[in-house]
Fold these 2 entries.
Entry 1:
Amino acid sequence: MEAGNNLLLGVTGGIAAYKSVELARLFRKAGLNVRVVMTDAATRFVTPMTFQAITGEAVRVDLFDPMHEAAMGHIELARWADHFLIAPASADFLARMANGLADDLLSTLCLVSTAPVSVAPAMNVNMWKHAATRKNIELLADRGVRILGPAVGEQACGDSGPGRMPEAAEIVSALMYSSAEGVFGGKKVMLTAGPTREAVDPVRFISNRSSGRMGFALAEAFAREGAEVVLVSGPVSLDTPPGVERIDVVSAQQMHDAVFDNLSGVDLFVGCAAVADYRPEHPSGQKIKKNANRMELSLVRNPDILAEVAALDNGPFTFGFAAETGALEENAKAKLVGKGLHMIAANLVGEGLGFDVEENALQVLWPGGETKLPMQDKKSLARALVGIVAQQYSNHLHQQGGSV
Ligand code: PMT
């Protein structure tokens, strides 16, 4: 969005509605025309008069408002909007949106409007984690609705975790930074994902437990933000996310070659693969027989793909992972500095953690800063992570005199 655009701001019933007053103010300050539609429940938290004073426009609540609806005001309102933001979006409203209900003005506008839609969910952490909400969010994201947040932290109810509406300034910067095609519109992102397999003989290999879920979720999240995405994947049994170009490889050397053969024009490189650090020095051409009581396997180092990409002159922005079973922050910082990366996600792994599970938690570090993303399903985690990458990448470009 840019100054002069028309923003339709939907406000639903939740304590975070107070933050939307600041949101409307910041959007006005940024030069947008803002009109507000509230649900009945939202008016119990903030009065329409407050938004009217901030935006200088009449606030609409009622679908059957005779003054506006004489001329089909809701259709006119939907046509007026260049962008439609619902903040806060309560669990109830997301469920109604996902199911296409149109029983009040705001939900009706969701069906009528053809403008790009963003939602900033805000609810209790357990409501956010509930399977029904997860399904509704997936459905809306699949339909192209942009999900902003939720942020993590203390909640008004005293619980802590994901569910807070992002701060007004964060929402404004997410929507104003992004092009019409998304935050990463016009950018090319390459990711590695999954394990590699290092052949011992024609039927045996050395590998690890990576399922590829984290890397595939990230590839999908980047694609949803408008990036051209190339995913170099080890052997996994996952479907390719929509809009993602996939290159399948088996060994670390093949992953290395595929990355460097396709690196031209890549703006961001994300190393999420669990690449084998070593491979058998002399893989056997025949199946090895069990003749002796002992057998020794000589291993040699594989190339470090991420470190090599980070060492390139004028290379892409590099974001790596550090899978650690202990001393998480210390080891991740050593990899961030040692490999010369822009960002790293420290991932505590072990029995039931990180590898081959549905949920994950990360500590994200960059020079001079860090943030924690608590345990959540890998798709939600990937969306949150892409938001953090957007911020760091944008800072990086500004330092270089460019922009996202
Ligand atoms: O695939 P899932 O089951 O969803 O599990 C996700 C995950 C746990 C694999 C993922 O979140 C993760 O942590 N990936 C990194 C795994 C890893 O091998 O980390 P590392 O600390 O050994 O490597 C550090 C970084 O260097 C990683 O970005 C890795 O991709 C990269 N690397 C490592 C070795 C090598 N030869 N080449 C590399 O590019």
Entry 2:
Amino acid sequence: MKPVMIITGAGRGIGAATAIMAAQKGYAVAVNYRSDKASADKVVAEIESDGGRAIAIQADVVDEAAIVAMFETVDRELGRVDVLVNNAGVVDQISRVDEMSFKRVDRMMKINVVGPFICAREAIKRMSTQSGGRGGAIINVGSAASHLGGAGEYVDYAASKGAIDTMTEGLSKEVAGEGIRVNTIRPGVIRTTIHASGGNPDKPDIAGSVIPMGRIGEPEEIANGILWLAEAGFTTGAFVDIDGGV
Ligand code: NAP
């Protein structure tokens, strides 16, 4: 039986690169997406054409029932989850805090914070040695924004990733004795569709000049870190910064 990895938001960007790399390393992969079925199906087709195993599962991470159903589908079709990658996340239009609507901040926190908590809850139920599981790993995709702060751009996004850092700190200790490791990858600016969807399509071009290494990162460089954390048996509560030195 292949080890099983669930990756939220795996139709595009970092999640898609992670799904493809995970399948190459022998994982059966659940490719979660919210609305872009065609992209998720393409990731699955690429994995299958390479001889790997993957399924696409629609679930919005702000919908508790959909998250529960996603984990149940994985139980049935791939087997018990070994690794959860909490990757799905959004940014929003560039804005100062005094211009932010309640709706915007509420959406940001629901997708970037509440979703990862509920996915972690479902994973822990299946992984915990206290409830008969074999242990496992939870890898959160945070952001360098959690320590940079996002001033004048998206303090709400940065704060949502700060919550993920704190969740990692606490949850890693809470479940360390139950065979579950919890770690966070903190990417800097990476070449994905998130910038355009947040109304900031030029960010990758502009950011390269202010990053100490002089360039932005590629999704595969983050996937590489995620796959390392999936196997890093003595690492928990860690923050792995992959950001070109910001
Ligand atoms: P992306 O290219 O915009 O892809 C986002 C993925 O998340 C898509 O597959 C999307 O699904 C999915 N998604 C969004 N909202 C969702 C929801 N409510 N439920 C389920 N899936 C949802 O993003 P990315 O750049 O790869 O970002 C992935 C993660 O890395 C995010 O957590 C982001 O904050 C973090 N990050 C990115 C950067 C960067 O510069 N790119 C830097 C630091 C951290 P659909 O395609 O169906 O909409």
